[in-house]
Amino acid sequence: MNRPNVVSVGVIVWLSSELMFFAGLFAMYFTIRAVAPQMWETGPTLLNIPFSSVNTAILVVSSLWCQFGVFAAERFQPRRTGGLLDFKRWGMIEWFVLTYIFGAIFVAGQVLEYAELIHKGLSISTNGYGSVFYLTTGFHGLHVVGGLIAFLMVIGRAFAARRFGHAEATSAIVVSYYWHFVDVVWIGLFAVIYILK
């Protein structure tokens, strides 16, 4: 009988608690929107939707790179076995470095967006709209930064391992669970905050 991987189960249970955390943020957003809809007449007009759409696409594509890294980890292939531009022969490390770069670009894009919004007069203390915007997107941004740290740890572990085995592959897989979760949450936030009128 195959027993489920304890680390994977633990991460899935933990992500369930994270899901409840973000559900609370969504509830806060919709509650304040229902109580004070007038704030949504001006607040969303300050958002740069084309810029945020590109930033969202960057994060979503990073999930694809992450999954390619998982496939390499499942083959126990930590490093590339061909040339740098021979993507078919990339290992987990190369795919995870690319994922890290895209994730870092996403965070930098969020910081740039915050700076632009503050310049336009929307800060966390401006009104209820500003508060829920910065709290929901800010907590998500912190989760992305946590994922970036996790990628560095997995990459470092792959470099340090004498033999890339099940433990290293499991680390890569559970970090991918987290990264995909963060991406899915962002798609929900993007739809609610930027698209939903």
Describe the structure.
With 197 residues, the chain is an all-alpha fold. The protein has a single domain, classed as Cytochrome c oxidase, subunit III, four-helix bundle (Four Helix Bundle (Hemerythrin (Met), subunit A), Up-down Bundle). Helices cover 77% and strands 0% of the residues. The N and C termini lie far apart (51 Å). The relative contact order is 0.17. Belongs to the cytochrome c oxidase subunit 3 family. It catalyses: 4 Fe(II)-[cytochrome c] + O2 + 8 H(+)(in) = 4 Fe(III)-[cytochrome c] + 2 H2O + 4 H(+)(out). InterPro entries: Cyt_c/ubiquinol_Oxase_su3, Cyt_c_oxidase-like_su3, Cyt_c_oxidase_su3-like_sf, Cyt_c_oxidase_su3_a-hlx. This is cytochrome-c oxidase. Keywords: Cell membrane, Membrane, Translocase, Transmembrane, Transmembrane helix.
CATH class: Mainly Alpha
CATH topology: Four Helix Bundle (Hemerythrin (Met), subunit A)
The string of secondary-structure elements, in order, is HHHHHH
Overall spatial form: elongated
EC number: 7.1.1.9
Organism: Kineococcus xinjiangensis
Main location: membrane
Keywords: Cell membrane, Membrane, Translocase, Transmembrane, Transmembrane helix
